[in-house]
């Protein structure tokens, strides 16, 4: 199998046009754009300086802004995918958005949101029915954990579904994982 030849390094103007094309295809964070641009320049200090100049130019023209990216991303994930605050936080951190920006953005985005209602909407979207056994209740709990909902919200939903107290106790013992604020 033939290996692909790496693309020729780009000058600053060509790199800027490439970056605008990338941003036209999809919203991206500063970290993502830098990572993609680094592949298209000469290795070394000159390439890093070119990437930084292009990123600064994009930011000055408001084509690249992590704060607005985080706001849009959180709103869309909340409205369309019905995801909890934890999951959106993890996704934004993975995409390279600064922790301070993530924190203030999520506090504002989830300020008036009833997380229990959001979790119920997520279950409806996934067409999840009331669990008939302990095994199904555990599956629902894991699904909601992956979707970023707090254990308290998950147990409220399961209690309202009349899941047996013994099954809830077993699920709570499994939840000895990371704290609510950690990523």
Layout of helices and strands:
Layout: H1 12-25, H2 30-38, H3 45-60, H4 66-80, H5 85-94, H6 99-109, H7 115-125, H8 134-146, H9 151-160, H10 165-174
Helix pairs in contact: 1-3, 2-3, 4-5, 4-6, 5-6, 7-9, 8-9
β-strand amount: under 5%
Helix content: 55-70%
Distance between the termini: 40 Å
Q: How many separate domains? A: 3
What form results from the Cα inertia axes? elongated
Task: Tell me the number of strands.
Answer: 0
Number of alpha- plus pi-helical segments:
10
- Summarize the helix and strand pattern as letters: HHHHHHHHHH
Low-confidence regions? 178-183
Give the biggest beta sheet: none
Category by helix and strand content: mainly alpha
Query: Rg from C-alpha positions?
Result: 22 Å
What does this protein structure show overall?
The protein has 183 residues and is an all-alpha fold. It folds into 3 domains: 12-60; 66-109, Arc Repressor Mutant, subunit A (Orthogonal Bundle); 115-174. It contains 10 helices and no strands. The longest helix is centred in the N-terminal third of the chain and has 16 residues, at 45-60. It is elongated and about 65 Å long.
């Amino acid at each position: 199998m033939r290996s692909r030849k790496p693309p020729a390094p780009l000058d600053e103007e060509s790199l800027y046009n490439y970056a605008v094309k990338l941003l036209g295809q999809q919203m991206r964070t500063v970290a993502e754009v830098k990572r993609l641009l680094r592949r298209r320049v000469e290795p070394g200090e000159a390439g890093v300086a070119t990437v930084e100049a292009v990123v600064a130019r994009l930011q000055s023209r408001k084509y690249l802004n992590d704060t607005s990216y985080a706001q849009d991303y959180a709103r869309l994930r909340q409205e369309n995918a019905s995801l909890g605050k934890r999951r959106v936080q993890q996704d934004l951190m993975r995409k390279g958005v600064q922790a301070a920006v993530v924190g203030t953005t999520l506090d504002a985005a989830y300020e008036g949101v009833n997380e229990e209602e959001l979790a119920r909407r997520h279950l409806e979207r996934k067409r999840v029915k009331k669990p008939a056994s302990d095994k199904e209740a555990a599956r629902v709990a894991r699904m909601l954990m992956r979707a970023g909902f707090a254990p308290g919200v998950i147990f409220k939903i399961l209690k309202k579904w009349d899941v047996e107290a013994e099954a809830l106790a077993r699920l709570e013992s499994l939840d000895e994982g990371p704290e609510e604020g950690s990523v």
